[in-house]
Design a protein that fits this description.
The chain has 396 residues and is of the alpha/beta class. It folds into two domains: 139 residues, Aspartate Aminotransferase, domain 1 (Alpha-Beta Complex); 246 residues, 3-Layer(aba) Sandwich (Aspartate Aminotransferase, domain 2), CATH 3.40.640.10. The protein has a seven-stranded mixed beta sheet with strand order 2-10-9-8-5-3-4, sandwiched between helices. Helix 11 packs across helix 12 and helix 12 packs antiparallel against helix 13. It starts with 5 loop residues before the first strand and ends with a helix.
Length: 396
């Protein structure tokens, strides 16, 4: 089919031409004497994306899953207890990874469509008088359900109780798209990846690690090799890497960071919020619901749309792809077959969102979902018009 394909899964996301061009370079010598002139400023500027002055940025050639593993193996020992909650597929996978490493996981099951259960976290931590819990896990943005959790509230609980547990955050589908404050929220290890808010191909796990977590690494006993923070930091201090880095991806990351900082992080976050609101306006106009159970959980990077009973969500996804060249995300685990997901993060603007919503309407109509054609697109247009008008008035 002629024309561009529509990529609206929640990762990988659309890649700007500027980043493509940055990576379209001859392969280079990663041991060259001038390579540190590229590496050191990149690591320094990445700290701005995490909003930290004290954290240590570490980049591994990996996916976000490797970042999860590094957080565990560098700071914990076999038999340590971690507190986690499962309210989506990626929360679940992180818990399963912890179990594979011999950790004792105190798992709280929560309703899929909600976020981190703050009251239950407080109760568990308050009852832990001997501080057996060594780390607390939070998935900031659960990609499977379109839910964002309150990381700052978890930090407040830890501080209120004077509990020394480390705070680990999965920010794979939030960092560089949704407001994330490493220092202010007291995060100890934040994990993200290159393929979502950073608008790049998959291939880099990008982390920020606190001084407290680095101190914990000195006594942690879990085995680590490829993901050893100490090895990476020692080489990074000289402007190099302990093994061959993904230099081409690093060139793309440089362009990505430049684009984010040029737009300004507050503007990046506001853009994602405005575009997400347009998608949700469309969902409500169709007479459908979001998987996120309440507005407090709404994600600004992905919306999981619940299909009516008797309709298979996968049919909507297949129809969108096969007939209209539109890629949507599928439901995972407990919500498999019940939702389709619209990714709205990264290199994205108003007309791209309207394109996606128009494609969704075509696919839903073909699969028998009852709604007024154009209602969702119209609602999105009205939302964006109001949002733009509000911004104009505020500026005046």
């Amino acid at each position: 089919m002629p024309g561009f394909k529509g990529l609206f899964v929640p990762g990988p996301t659309n890649m700007p031409f500027r980043i493509r061009q940055a990576m379209d370079v001859a392969l280079e010598d990663h041991r060259a004497p001038d390579f540190p002139e590229f590496v050191r400023p990149l690591l320094a500027d990445l700290k701005k994306i995490f909003q930290t002055t004290t954290g240590q940025v570490i980049i591994f050639p990996s996916s976000g899953t490797g970042g999860w593993e590094s957080a565990i193996t560098n700071t914990l020992s076999v038999g340590d207890t971690v507190l986690a909650s499962v309210y989506g597929q990626f929360c679940y996978l992180w818990v399963e990874l912890c179990k594979r490493f011999g950790l004792n996981v105190d798992t709280i099951e929560a309703e899929w469509g909600t976020g981190v259960p703050l009251d239950r976290y407080r109760a568990r931590l308050e009852a832990d008088k001997t501080h057996k819990i060594k780390a607390v896990l939070v998935t900031h943005n659960e990609t499977a359900t379109g839910v964002t959790s309150d990381v700052a509230a978890v930090r407040r609980i830890l501080d209120d109780l004077k509990h020394p547990a480390l705070l680990f955050v999965d920010g794979v589908s939030s960092i560089a798209a949704i407001d994330f404050r490493m220092d202010e929220w007291g995060v100890d290890v934040a994990v993200t990846g290159s393929q979502k808010g950073f608008m790049m191909p998959t291939g880099l796990a990008i982390l920020c690690v606190s001084e407290k977590a680095l101190k914990a690494a000195e006594t942690a006993k879990l085995p680590r090799g490829f993901f050893d923070y100490k090895d990476m930091m020692k080489s990074n201090a000289q402007g190099y890497f302990p093994y061959t880095p993904a230099a081409t991806l690093l060139r793309g990351l440089r362009a990505s960071v430049d684009m984010l900082l040029e737009e300004g992080l507050p503007n990046v976050f506001a853009r994602h919020h405005r575009l997400a609101g347009a998608v949700r306006a469309a969902v409500h106009a169709w007479g459908l619901t979001c998987c996120a159970a309440a507005p407090q959980w709404y994600s600004d990077t992905v919306t999981a749309v619940v299909v009516p009973k008797g309709i298979a969500a996968n049919e909507v996804i297949k129809t969108a792809y096969n007939r209209y060249d539109l890629s949507l995300g599928g439901g995972l685990n407990k919500v498999a077959g019940k939702v389709f997901r619209i990714g709205h993060l990264g290199w994205l603007n108003e007309i791209m969102v309207l394109q996606a919503l128009g494609g969704v309407e075509l696919a839903m109509r073909d699969t028998g979902i009852a709604f007024e054609p154009g209602s969702g697109v119209g609602a999105a247009v009205r939302h964006l018009s109001r949002a733009d008008e509000s911004m104009r008035v505020a500026a005046e």
